Input
Amino acid sequence: MPKLLHISASPRGERSESLALAAAFLDGYRRLNPGDEVEEWDLWDGSLPEFGPAAAAAKMDVFAGQEPAGAGAEAWRRARAAFERFAAADKYLFSVPMWNAGVPYILKQFIDVVSQPGMVFGFDGELGYSGLVTGRRAAVIYTSAVYGEGRGPAFGADFQAPYLESWLRWAGITDIASVEFRPNLATTEVGARREQARADAADAAKKL
Output
């Protein structure tokens, strides 16, 4: 059974524009793919482990060809469990609000937890990195309150989409569709932009 994993980076619940668009996407997706499994992963639900000193030491042990021990071994086990939850999906939906021109820190934490050698990437001293999460497709919903393409620097900058899509490609996921609702606050066209974004989300669901 194909599996779609929705990874949500917004903590705003019913007030979230990105989650509202994700709901529109998933409504359409479920109608088109009634046999698929859909799993929700709210990154704010407490299930995401930290990646602190013990985990960082374990990562360097693995790079050196050593087996993590003690606190490092437990931290590595938690990181692997998070990765396996991620890697168990065939398709992904990311709902990502813009925070300070970039992504919410909880999404960066997710990326730092799962991006491990032998999991998300392989490494060769001569050839460099290779993505290991291949054969998957992803759709990403981007929202921002003020930033919008073509606006001047006084309205912010975009380190949101370039960062996430660079990571996805680095991990091996190259089939990426994006839906944007940017800006969704500092404009007189909020209603029309929201309806267009909902239509774009429904259209993206048809292609995933």
